[in-house]
Design goal:
about 90 residues; mainly alpha
């Protein structure tokens, strides 16, 4: 069973919280709140997405790089992680 599936409920709860935070940014913009307030909301979203990303990366490393089924899975897991990091850092 995939580590993402095992943690599905927890991950979905985090995504739903992030969705609520993004909706708060939308409401703040619609209400024409001050830029400092909107920036604070955006910073919160960024932090939440960063936390989710870190958790998923950690789980991926543990499952597919540190404790893979075989050497081929380790290679694939490492390659996938490199691709994700390159995309993340763009």
């Amino acid at each position: 069973m995939s580590h993402v599936i095992k943690e599905k409920a927890k991950l979905l709860a985090r995504v739903r919280r992030i969705k609520g935070q993004v909706e708060a940014v939308e409401r703040a913009l619609e209400a024409e709140l001050g830029c400092a307030d909107v920036l604070q909301l955006v910073a919160s979203v960024r932090g939440a997405v960063g936390g989710l990303t870190a958790e998923l990366m950690e789980d991926h490393i543990r499952e597919h790089v540190l404790h893979p089924v075989d050497a081929a899975e380790r290679q694939r897991g490492g390659d996938e992680l490199i691709d994700v990091i390159k995309t993340y850092l763009k």
